[in-house]
């Protein structure tokens, strides 16, 4: 089996490869082939990767996207359209308009999506015509891209991943001294806009204990997070990104008074690549980079797609009845039963009105943005921006859009 | 036939009675009976009304709610829970927290709803047990109350009305020199959160002409309203109350720099009641009061419920398939085929994603608020406030709720 | 305005033209153009029609389907694919297998549908590419064809008609000495498989009176129809064609011991065409032909599509929420609000489980038959036949299908 | 943990106990308590059971239903309302009217259901008020009873079981030399009216191979079963009970020319109970009794409800999105993910139109029958019978119902 990794020059690549090494005892991996438009960065990473892998499987570099995916059974998307330069704009421009500047949420997620769509469209088309491989996507905004691919490009073998669910599971497992597989959640929402209603560990409903734990933590760090009453009131564990929606003013202050995360990451990456040139083990600095456990999420998913065990993974896919009071065609981040290449959603009952309030609004925004892209329409793009809970007021919308489009003119053109 | 008017002391009453006089040639009205907790104001109004009605039908005053509704075929709710004093709080308190202070929208609508629910619950219960009359509701927030009555109290013969749809129809009719009945709309949404996708006059699709007209008007008054590009982009006519969502900052500035509308209305009402004491015709000053054509909406609805002609009315009722991509049970403001006591919704196809983004979010807020009321729960009330697009951030939510509850402590208690 | 009539040589044509003459005072008809593959029969009919019409509008004959429809605003389909010869097979072949032989129901309707689909496909395609006219369809099986056109050919301006609803309305109007427009029904189902739950006359619910009337009639003619207890039990008025489902054995005996209806009709038509050669008024013999009031249904529908009055018509169209517990995309026979070219379905609440039992089963059969046709697949055709409540057992299915295909080999080929 | 077995005197009991013995190494079973209205038969069986169990867990007999269930975590329903005498009527009466006489299907299933409902209603009520145990139901008609309990009695912890799915899985496993857990199915429908679209073994799609196998078998025994072309045409594996629908005449001949199965079973049971008096091992004769693997189905289900492994079981439960084009509330027989007391349905995509044709019709019949029972209404019972694809024509319906009600007058009364 060949696995293609698109965005091979990512600083995450070594961790991903470690994940693949871990599962290579359960499933047979013959080759891992890398592709990146930044050949230089990729060279550094892949050379390091070869030292890690030794002869467990072949490590290859491809000159073109097509030759990477043509014989692949799995294709992992982890490229960053527009690079960290693009992210810098996503984070910086909204701030000028008094809006949250964040890589995946709100206006920043909007420009990131517009940059990603043309590449995704081309890449998915190539995979469809060649290997018909299963695509595992980490490229952000991951859920928005999955909505695009599943409902508009209509390519079915596309699974959106994020490391938030697995990290939450890991935290729970740690609290209760359990294994990852002992944790089962009633979990739903959009990527970076998800909600957890129930937590089970080894079959026991520990939801109340988790709330107590959360409140305890919050009471120690009152300024950093939701107040303790928040969980008493809402009774749902929210994705950390909900802070941007629920504490918009505070979060705006916080991020506008710090250096942009993009610039921090640039520095971290610089150091990392220096290390990669000679490293034989994954350097500790990688943990600063974020993205914890993302390799575990991907590697375990591949393992469970390749075997007939039947395991639960929380991924972005079409609802198909999982949340009874959301439409079947919404792409959601939900637990699925994964077995031998099939991904079945699990019935979870009804979703909470509080959660649905955000999920619906942002799903409508997602679709408007996709339609704006597909029609290359500035008018529809404005409509999309105005529909977002964190989007601009009418007064600023036009200037903001123009500035975004100017900054991203190499990547996408709307008229 | 007897018609009961609850809130008989309203300054609108004379206009309503004029509407009833207009239809009294088409349908037989024997008696109109008034009930108000403010007996003094009601006395002034009803005395004036008697001078208007002469002997066209009997004009009565009831001592109790029950005796007013017991023999009624229609009950009109037009009372204002908490009076203008209550409205003053609804408008004033949010402003202190940097939030829109508006009678029906956002936080102000939240406190108005909490004041209304206990009275509505009691009144609907009495009607159910006595006359089983059809209730026509103008009490605000009219759509939210209809959601409460239809889906939670499960009383079916309850129709929510507002004068926005009929005024829009009147404007269109004027532009095209047509009659009200010549206008047909693709219209949907929540009360004060509604959207018009298509306008037909005498069967002709004039939607583009209406957009041109709107843009022309906007270009003359650039500071007062949406910019002209707004309609080019959104391609939906929005309810005027959408300004609060789409131009939140501007509207906040505007309303926070003026006297509260509640106080203006107090003055207008004072003058009006002075006039009513002696008037024999409706005084011109009533037009300043707002509420234009509300009597036409109610009177025509009663006429068409009483006859077998089959006419279209835009009312608040359960969707039941009218908008294909909204759940059947959402109470929406939509066109209905009204005939002999029956109200059938009409299929209108799919709703636009932009419109749905707001409709879904606010419907979820509506339900959370109702659930908070039914459980008398402060915790759920906080959850409801946090879910509203115009609601507070987490930092302010608790103080805001406490202030609202304190100001309304005579009307509702949450724990 | 031009109206095209396809199947101009039908013996019904003069009655249709009379209907058009009736509405020609309300809507402007410039030309009616006829097309038929049987030019000889058409010549006789159209010459007669010209005598009827005088100079109220132009009466034309077209050489081709395309030239008939190209400038038409309405196209009326009333042709019979395969003629009465085809019908003879539809009625005769099933009898050999112990099955109901009926023109539109069960196995006979299956072969009629297979003959119709290729012609409908071609004709609808031509209309789509030329005039984009509204097609009003009487060609049987009318509902099945509407399912085909709306859901598979995806042509929207296609309305399936039948004279059963208007005749039922006429009967009710007669019983209660009312006008057609005074009658309003809760009516739903498939064409020739429809159900009436409620009858209103001038706004009054007369359902119980109608049941009493039906039972009275039945008690006088016990052998001909449902027993009186039937309506006490089922509490729904059923389309007369339900006899084939509910009294299958009795109906089989009845039809297998009479001459085939196709042959009777051949004789009637022969006489009729003899009369048409010289007639100046519609001959009384036409009433024997069946099809009562079908011209009224079509003419009134055109009138109400052309005007802005807003009237109710029971037609075959997509459910779109009319019956809450049936899917939106089922083509049903239901009341619609017709106004200025638009057809809106009306919310009617839930359908009864008894009715739904038949509606679902036959709708699934309809779709299987359409899919068999689209793939020209004998295998799928067998599957369709086996799914029909009046279809063959497995033992007979193959022979039956072969005999049907042989008899219809000029019209449709499956492999 | 205590398990209560209702219908302890069943001849199946020893096999069930063997199943419980098998899982008693994985889950802790403290006591199994039996209850039966036939104390004599139960005594014989339980004495035998005690010899089987030795001291693995306590074996108890309860005098009352309530004392059996009050401390139970699981309650297994395997009683036969009306006993074999009741079954004799279910099978014999329909034959007199030319209808299929079968214990669970068609008219026989109807009378069995009417006998079962009052007992089920009382028993479920008692469980709800006492232990709130999970009920595992084998009492027939198992799916119909589950529809009754889940949707009308609204008791959630009720799972309908049948041995058809596990036997199918066993057969497949044997063909492919695999384990039960290696088989995964796209399976849906009603109990005894189910359909298999896809078969996977160890992750491989072996559906085509299964069809070839079925056809091979059929070609060897042409008179006993579907012809080989059937599977080529329908492309779905059907539950053996579909024979009654698809080969009604042939099956009628077959069953009406043999002794009633009820009488055969009476003889087998007599012999069996003779053996049970002295047996220490399960006698071979039990295999003649039918019901193969039913104990495995129940025991494995309990094991997987008690553990956190997450396993697939095909059970009767609410659809909840599993089959996308069937309503969420239909009780279906479908694969579920069973883990720590929770039962999640799995998304399986759309159901085939052929399958849906039968599923819908019989589900509507099920609901009509339940409503007839709840209202104790003969009229509704007639309506239910008329709606069933294997039910009587109108001519016979009344006599048939009267005869059924007379034969079952001790169990149920309708008016
Ligand atoms: Mn992420
Ligand atoms: Mn209003
Ligand atoms: Mn017809
Ligand atoms: Mn069974």
Automatic annotation (TrEMBL), chains A, B, C, D:
Residues 187-390 form the Glycosyl hydrolase family 4 C-terminal domain. Mn(2+) binds at residues 162, 192. GO terms for molecular function: hydrolase activity, hydrolyzing O-glycosyl compounds; metal ion binding; oxidoreductase activity, acting on the CH-OH group of donors, NAD or NADP as acceptor. Keywords: Cobalt, Glycosidase, Hydrolase, Iron, Manganese, Metal-binding, NAD, Nickel. Substrate binds at residues 87, 140. The keyword Iron applies. Binds 1 NAD(+) per subunit. One of its GO terms (biological process) is carbohydrate metabolic process. Its cofactor is NAD(+). The record marks 103 as: Increases basicity of active site Tyr. Belongs to the glycosyl hydrolase 4 family. PANTHER family: 6-PHOSPHO-BETA-GLUCOSIDASE, 6-PHOSPHO-BETA-GLUCOSIDASE-RELATED. This is Glycoside hydrolase family 4. It comes from Thermotoga petrophila (strain ATCC BAA-489 / DSM 13996 / JCM 10882 / RKU-10). The lineage of its organism: Bacteria, Thermotogati, Thermotogota, Thermotogae, Thermotogales.
């Amino acid at each position: 089996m060949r696995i293609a990794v698109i965005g091979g020059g990512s600083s995450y690549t070594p961790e991903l490869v470690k994940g693949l090494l871990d599962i290579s005892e359960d499933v047979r991996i013959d080759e891992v082939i890398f592709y990146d438009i930044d050949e230089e960065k990729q060279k550094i990473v892949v050379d390091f990767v070869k030292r890690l892998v030794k002869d467990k499987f072949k490590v290859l570099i491809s000159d073109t996207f097509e030759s990477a995916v043509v014989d692949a059974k799995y294709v992992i998307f982890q490229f960053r359209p527009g690079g960290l330069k693009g992210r810098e704009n996503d984070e910086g421009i909204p701030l000028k308009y008094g809006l949250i500047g964040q890589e995946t949420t709100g206006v920043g997620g909007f420009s990131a999506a517009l940059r990603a769509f043309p590449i995704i469209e081309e890449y998915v088309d190539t995979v469809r015509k060649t290997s018909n491989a299963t695509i595992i996507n980490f490229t952000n905004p991951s859920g928005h891209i999955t909505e695009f691919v599943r409902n508009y490009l209509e390519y079915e073998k596309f699974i959106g991943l994020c490391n938030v669910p697995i990290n939450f599971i890991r935290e729970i497992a740690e609290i209760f001294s359990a294994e990852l597989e002992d944790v089962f959640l009633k979990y739903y929402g959009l990527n970076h806009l998800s909600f957890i209603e129930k937590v089970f560990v080894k079959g026991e409903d520990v939801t109340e204990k988790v709330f107590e734990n959360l409140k305890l933590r919050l009471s120690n760090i009152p300024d950093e997070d939701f107040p303790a009453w928040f969980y008493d009131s809402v009774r749902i564990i929210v994705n950390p990104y909900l802070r941007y929606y629920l504490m918009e003013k505070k979060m705006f202050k916080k991020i506008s008074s710090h250096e942009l995360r993009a610039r921090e990451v640039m520095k971290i990456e610089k150091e990392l690549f220096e290390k990669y040139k000679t490293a034989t083990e994954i350097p500790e600095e990688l943990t600063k980079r974020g993205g914890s456990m993302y390799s575990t999420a991907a590697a375990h998913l591949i393992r469970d797609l390749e075997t007939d065990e039947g395991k639960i993974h929380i991924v972005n896919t079409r609802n198909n009845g999982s949340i009874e009071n959301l439409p079947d065609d919404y792409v959601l981040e939900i637990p699925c039963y994964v077995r031998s290449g099939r991904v079945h959603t699990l019935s979870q009952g009804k979703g909470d009105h509080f959660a649905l309030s955000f999920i619906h609004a942002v799903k409508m925004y997602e679709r408007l943005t996709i339609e704006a892209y597909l029609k290359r329409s500035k008018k529809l793009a404005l409509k999309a921006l105005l529909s977002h809970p964190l989007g601009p007021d009418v007064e600023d919308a036009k200037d903001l859009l123009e500035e975004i489009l100017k900054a991203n003119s190499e990547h996408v053109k709307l008229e």
